[in-house]
Design goal:
Chain lengths: 129, 682
């Protein structure tokens, strides 16, 4: 994979404005990833790394943002006072703003429900409906 | 009528490019009082200075303006030249037409007009300059060193070997500091005590060094060359001059408490020396924990001492000594573990002095909720040390088992704006690598993992040392650890590998935290006591981060070692030697000269509000009684100690009766300067 560093970062600006977080504060220590109980893949620090590289689309289209359950463990422990939870939340919001609602509630299916943590489903309801 | 000479410098092209210096000289020559002008290429060059001196003599000038670069650069040069030519140096002023004019403007016309203005303002000011004499101060050629770690030891030896008498004030019963706790030292892996203790012995045998151990500085008065220190010698309960250090007392003492030298990993007797090679080898009784002092029981040590030197009634002694210079070398401590997710708060030995025996008993090392096998770097040093609690075998504190898997976590508390400090502690990458090696050499089949973010190994032989550690089986994982928790008798380490972007778990037998180096608890108090400044963390501030790294903000007080910022041993020793050489410079003169630009008080006018006393950051102002010739009291007035006054001018701004002024910056001078401003260029 070759990465093209983009100078136009308007989507990132929008995200930073919406969340109040500054993505460049993150120094990629991975403490958020280490403690994330949702086993996100890509993990929170990788999502932030995508954003730092200008790969906004890759971050916003990652499946894993939907499994964040907003537990705030990462934000509590981040040594740089970044809130990965807020950034993930922002990604979800921008995704929903720009695109169609991601999920139709009754179409969720048993498999999704079985594989998701309860808190994730509940915190996602606001977005689904 | 004044006879002022004005010398306009072209500074090659630096000034001449944007300022018409000939025009400035000509216009200035028309001002009243100006008797001589020059326009010259390089005023600071040797011929320039000769011309300057000749002009003063030939024209019998009584004041000079040099319109040139910042006074920071060459004020001293021209004042010296004037002195050589027989003119009072304080009748020379610099008009800065380079930094404040030619360098910041492009338009020649404007810059020339502004230069004329700047020069004219200085000419007007100069008319009110009084000839001043530098103060001469005697120097007491004795040095005080606060803190007897490796920094204090090195500075003391350097000074004493240069025939300067030294006193060391050390808070603990022995010299040595943190270095005495280390097992082996990077980057050469030589035994710390083997290189440290010979120095300690040298200090104790040196005729010019006196050691005040178990002592603290209470107060420091005076100024550069003339300090008066008040030192409290805490009661050791042992008559020092009679004690032979035979050890009968501490061997027989039946009561034990946590040993702070071993970071609480072992016990020591209540009458104790911190470690076998202690200097001086005189024990002290830890009165807080001694039953003789708590309930008048025991007293065994007094019975066994053949020299009869135990004295339970001994009192603290307060002594006063005179010094010409002070070196502060109070070192560092490790940050307590403030991370709940890393097993929580540190055990009591981190603040041993604050806790009474009773509280300490309620907080044993196996505090509920604390992970006992999570230790810090200094605790690991004690475990690895041949003189430590395990005799150099690496065993974990909880059950004494040899740990098969050890996880080392770097940057704990460092580089953490959330719960720790923002700076990098600089030495922990190195000592963590050292720890992996010490562990490997001790437990050959053991596995070690290091969680790190970056490896900072920028010293001589340091990167090579890291390479060696990595080739000796240490597994480096790039990522931070999120949480440590108990799992059976192991510790579950939840970390991340940021290269793959995945979380990862290790079950460890022991975890070693490379915690941040922070200043001593009482560092800010010490700074206030000494009148020196400190940064937001509590490290003492140097005068200039590049060019004056060992001078404190106060004249005559110098800094050495980890009290000024994180440092390893080589850097500490280098700074200590540098501080010693600064003291030698100071003491190489019989008298000190102080600039006369200090505050002066109009005693008649002073109305004793003492606002100036309150505001002076250097404690330079005192109250004095004014008496008449018969010695009868007339009134109070403020009095400035010219040795302490740094000429900051704060007192000038608070004095409501206009009774205090700064020599060289009198209201008259400043007013004359401002009113000469024309601003034709604006
Ligand atoms: C775990 C660990 C491992 C290390 N390993 C290495 C290594 O392998 N190699 C290396 O080069 N460096 C190493 N270092 C760094 C080394 O320990 C320090 O650089 C060195 O000890 C600093 O010396 P110092 O004299 O400035 O301070 P300290 O050793 O802290 O000495 C300060 C002294 O001042 C005394 N004091 C403090 N306050 C007062 C007061 N108010 N009044 C009177 N006395 C006072 C203290 O009691 C102490 O004796 C290591 C550090 C740690 C934490
Ligand atoms: S914990 Fe904070 S600094 Fe570390 S990778 Fe996550 S967001 Fe970045
Ligand atoms: S808030 Fe989301 S990203 Fe952060 S730790 Fe919890 S689940 Fe993971
Ligand atoms: S020296 Fe290394 S371990 Fe210590 S704070 Fe700096 S980067 Fe972290
Ligand atoms: S501020 Fe002025 S009036 Fe007040 S004590 Fe000082 S010199 Fe005297």
């Amino acid at each position: 994979m070759q990465i093209l560093m983009k100078s136009n970062q308007s989507a990132l600006k929008e995200l930073e404005l919406a969340t109040g977080e500054i993505v460049s504060d993150c120094y990629q220590c991975g403490k958020c990833t280490a403690g994330c109980p949702a086993s996100m893949d890509p993990s929170p620090s990788v999502l932030i790394h995508y954003l730092k590289l200008g790969l906004f689309e890759k971050a916003v289209n990652s499946e894993s943002i939907w499994s964040c359950m907003g537990c705030l463990t990462c934000s509590e422990r981040c040594p740089k006072n970044v809130s990965p939870a807020a950034i993930v939340e922002g990604l979800k919001r921008l995704h929903l703003n720009r695109m169609k609602p991601r999920v139709i509630l009754h179409a969720l299916g048993q498999e999704f429900l079985a594989n998701s943590t309860q808190q994730a489903v509940v915190s996602g309801f606001r977005k689904f409906v | 009528m004044a006879k002022i000479g004005v010398f306009v410098c072209q500074c090659g092209n630096n000034i001449a490019r944007t300022v018409d210096t000939a025009d400035v000289a000509e216009k200035t020559g028309e001002l009243s009082g100006v008797a001589h002008v020059e326009d010259y290429k390089f005023m600071c060059s040797a011929p320039g200075q000769e011309m300057f001196k000749k002009a003063i003599k030939d024209n019998n000038l009584d004041g000079c303006i040099v319109s040139a670069c910042s006074p920071k650069m060459h004020e001293a040069t021209f004042r010296k030249a004037a002195e050589d030519a027989g003119l009072n140096p304080f009748k020379v002023e610099i008009a800065n037409i380079r930094e404040q004019c030619s360098w910041v403007h492009d338009d020649k016309e404007i810059a020339t007009a502004k230069s004329k203005d700047i020069t004219k303002m200085m000419v007007n000011r100069l008319k009110y300059n009084r000839p001043l004499e530098r103060y001469k101060m005697p120097v007491t050629k004795r040095a005080l060193i606060i803190g007897g770690g490796i920094a204090g030891i090195q500075a003391a030896l350097d000074l004493a070997n240069a025939q300067i008498p030294v006193s060391i004030v050390e808070r603990e019963p022995s010299l040595g500091g943190n270095m005495a706790r280390l097992s082996e030292t990077f980057p050469t892996l030589d035994c710390s005590q083997c290189i440290l203790t010979p120095r300690m012995v040298e200090v104790s045998n040196h005729p010019l060094i006196s050691i005040h151990s178990y002592a603290e500085l209470e107060k420091l008065d005076g100024y550069i060359g003339n300090f008066r220190a008040t030192i409290r010698l805490k009661a050791k309960s042992v008559i020092e001059k009679d004690c032979t250090g035979c050890g009968e007392c501490w061997e027989k003492c039946p009561f034990t408490v946590e040993n702070e030298f071993d970071m609480g990993l072992s016990k020591r007797s209540v009458i104790y020396i911190p470690f076998p090679q202690a200097v001086p080898t005189v024990p002290v009784i830890d009165r807080e924990n001694c039953p003789k002092f708590i309930k008048d029981k025991c007293g065994l040590c007094a019975k066994v001492c053949g020299q009869q030197c135990i004295d339970f009634t001994q009192q603290d002694r307060v002594i006063e000594e005179e010094f010409g210079a002070v070196i502060v070398a109070t070192g560092f401590k490790l940050m307590p573990n403030v991370y709940k997710e890393y097993g929580g708060y540190r055990p009591p030995h981190m603040t041993p002095k604050k806790l009474t025996a009773k509280i300490r008993k309620t907080l044993p090392r196996s505090t509920a909720g604390r992970l006992v096998d999570v230790i810090n770097g200094l605790e690991f040093e004690r475990l690895a040390s041949a003189s430590g609690p395990t005799g150099g075998e690496i065993r974990r504190p909880s059950d004494g088992k040899v740990p098969e898997t050890v996880v080392f976590i770097a940057c704990v508390g460092s580089r953490d704006c959330n719960k720790g400090v923002e700076y990098c502690s600089k030495i922990c990458c190195m000592y963590t690598a050292k720890h992996t090696m010490l562990y490997q050499h001790n437990v050959h089949h053991g596995k070690s993992y290091v969680f790190y973010m970056d490896i900072r190994a920028g010293g001589k032989g340091y990167e090579e040392f890291i390479n060696r550690a990595q080739s000796e089986n240490a597994n480096y994982v790039r990522g931070r650890v999120s949480r440590l928790s108990k799992k059976g008798d192991k510790i579950l380490v939840k970390g991340a590998d940021t290269f793959t972007g995945h979380a990862l778990e290790i079950e460890a037998d022991m975890v070693v935290l490379a915690t941040a180096m922070v200043p001593q608890e009482d560092a800010m108090g010490v700074a206030k006591n000494l009148g020196i400044s400190y940064d937001q963390h509590g490290f003492f501030s140097e005068q200039h981060p590049k060019l004056m790294p060992v001078d404190s903000s106060t004249g005559g007080i110098y800094l050495a070692g980890a009290c000024q910022g994180v440092k390893d041993i080589p850097e500490t020793v280098a700074q200590a030697s540098a501080a010693a050489s600064k003291v030698m410079q100071l003491f190489s003169r019989e008298e000190l000269e102080r600039e006369p630009e200090v505050a002066i008080v109009d005693e008649k006018n002073c109305m004793n509000c003492w606002d100036c006393v309150t505001v002076c950051p250097y404690n330079a102002i005192d109250r004095t009684e004014i008496t008449n010739r018969q010695g009868q009291f007339l009134k109070w007035a403020a009095k400035v100690n010219p040795g302490l006054c740094q000429g900051c001018g704060l007192c000038n701004t608070v004095c409501r009766s206009k009774s205090i002024e700064l020599e060289g910056y009198t209201d008259q001078q400043v007013y004359a300067q401002i009113t000469a401003f024309e601003g034709a260029f604006v």
